[in-house]
């Protein structure tokens, strides 16, 4: 049948960070070609950070990505501190976890409200939704501002902040600011509930598509892992040391993507909120996160990639409650103005930092010389890890959509939704700091 | 008066400046009400090619980028460079101090020329090095208040002006203790203000993201830095971070 032979080419998928093209060729109902192209211009961070100094690496590598800039800084600092064997204080650790929670809040709200929600309402962007659901959009704006204000108090700025540095912080929030953040988390709760309810009301529009894959994320012991945890694969059921990461992510290059690909046990694997939730079910059993998961019917292990947005809401709830707990403790104990710990160049060597950026596993790996200068760097970015899995999803999803009798135009819409569900960050993916 | 049609385009960068536009939460609905956004790929699916004002983010890195920015210039009545990568080339230009092929191989190994997307210009360029830029909003990332102020002025038909004094002026106004007097190396004395000295307010030295102020006192700055124990190479390393591949730092 004629309608079962067609080609889809969508250059520059919208409402994602960075550039990606979808190309699908269907002949007689069979997928005869499918590529997720990443034509993002290579920026080559991994090359040009060589020769830069220990104190500025996080300042430079955060510029890989504007959306997950705090995650990049946190990971970069872990790598540099590991390279010089610096052990940060308990207070620094607590503040960094708090910054990480704010990062997840800001990014997840941006993704669900601005980038994903329009699809569920069949709108082209968040702007037409202002007329349809003004209260929800205003709530989303207030939620994003709440997280951004947390950055202003904790790190000095919303994008490419300045207060986080090797060995600690250059400045600290005042007691009043801690209290303000704590109060706002209470005040904004109805806004979060409104957002979650709204997404829930249209969640039935998320395509019912399941494809089991390998889920890779950090795995937590007592705390849900963002800033800390062990590298873990759902296929091997094994936790890995940081130093083993290269044998897990196995990056390689394909000609149609300047973002590298990755694979472990299969042709591809997934990272991100869905992987984290699938790999850490025991840490989602209580509190608001459990409530949200229950409302949306999420249960580990879920194999529908579109549920990534639902898992982001579950994580938003989790970060919300953890942020409250950390703030309560900081307010009770008071903050000590600790000067940042300085590196001892004699200890210089290789250091690896692994954290969970909002969109998945993020790894920075640096080697420093005895003058404190970087000689080698490698950054492994979640979107690189995910692009192979997205492509494999597209290959499995297209025949299902063809069988359902959907038009090429409708298929294109769903494929774009799929790419968006991963919350990709294509400009991140071609950063490049390396070997 | 019809609402002006505005488009946002991104080239090579982290897209943090577009994000700063989205971070104007309290003002966002007013902005959206006053202008007609026809193209903003990071946030909107519609793609109009009919626009009056184009905000450009990012640097020019590939031959394809050159063609694309020329087409945008031909369409736009006003072209605004948004943020350091567009304005000076930003830290993308650190690559200009390295051999391009060696840099590519460092990153991609044997696959350095795997496909057409891997083709890059031998030097990273700012937007102004390829087409005429009517106005730049500097910074890495931009100051969102400055962005709003520029939008307001453009809407009112006023030619926006930027401050032309160094960051030190704002830093003093904010009553910060001078970081140089505490032994830090700060580029505030030669860097264009307008950021409200946001880095030094947070006890982080200025790294020059807004570019050089007009007629900077480079000689005096360099004498001060050499007195502080820096070598010429140290000074160049700092200047190169954001000032781009300009004559001053070649």
Reading the helices and strands of chain B in chain order gives EHHEEHEHHEHHHHH
Average pLDDT figure of chain A: 92
Integer count of domains of chain B: 2
CATH architectural type of the largest domain in chain B: 3-Layer(aba) Sandwich
Main beta-sheet annotation of chain B? 5 strands, parallel
How far apart the termini of chain B lie comes to 48 Å
Descriptive tags:
heterodimer; A: about 425 residues; alpha+beta; Cytochrome-c3 Hydrogenase, chain B; 4-stranded mixed beta sheet; 3-stranded antiparallel beta sheet; 14 strands; about 15% strand; globular; B: about 250 residues; alpha/beta; Rossmann fold; 5 strands
Short description:
With 435 residues, chain A is an alpha+beta fold. Helices cover 45% and strands 15% of the residues of chain A. Chain A has a single domain (2-423), classed as Cytochrome-c3 Hydrogenase, chain B (Orthogonal Bundle), CATH 1.10.645.
Secondary-structure map with pairings?
The complex is a heterodimer of chains A (435) and B (250).
Chain A: E1 6-10, E2 21-27, E3 30-37, H1 45-48, H2 57-61, H3 69-83, H4 90-120, H5 126-132, H6 134-154, E4 164-165, E5 168-169, H7 175-187, H8 189-202, E6 214-219, E7 230-233, E8 238-240, H9 245-249, E9 251-252, E10 261-262, E11 269-270, H10 273-279, H11 287-296, H12 308-333, E12 350-357, E13 360-368, E14 374-380, H13 382-403, H14 408-421
Chain B: E1 5-10, H1 16-22, H2 25-34, E2 36-40, E3 53-57, H3 63-75, E4 78-82, H4 84-87, H5 100-108, E5 135-137, H6 144-155, H7 167-173, H8 198-201, H9 218-227, H10 232-243
3D architecture notes:
With 435 residues, chain A is an alpha+beta fold. Chain A has a single domain, classed as Orthogonal Bundle (Cytochrome-c3 Hydrogenase, chain B), CATH 1.10.645. Chain A is 45% helix and 15% strand. In chain A, helix 7 (175-187) packs antiparallel against helix 12 (308-333) and helix 13 (382-403) packs antiparallel against helix 14. The radius of gyration of chain A is 21 Å and the shape is globular. The model of chain A has no long low-confidence stretch (mean pLDDT 92). Chain B has 250 residues and is α/β, with parallel strands linked by helices. Chain B has two domains: 5-155, NADH:ubiquinone oxidoreductase-like, 20kDa subunit (Rossmann fold), CATH 3.40.50; 167-249, no CATH class. Helix content of chain B is 35%, strand content 10%. A five-stranded parallel beta sheet of chain B has the order 2-1-3-4-5. In chain B, helix 3 links the parallel strand 3 and strand 4. Chain B is globular, with a radius of gyration of 19 Å. Chain B starts with a strand and ends in a 7-residue tail after the last helix. The mean pLDDT of chain B is 90. At the A-B interface, helix 1, helix 4, helix 5 and helix 6 of A face helix 1, helix 2, helix 5 and helix 8 of B.
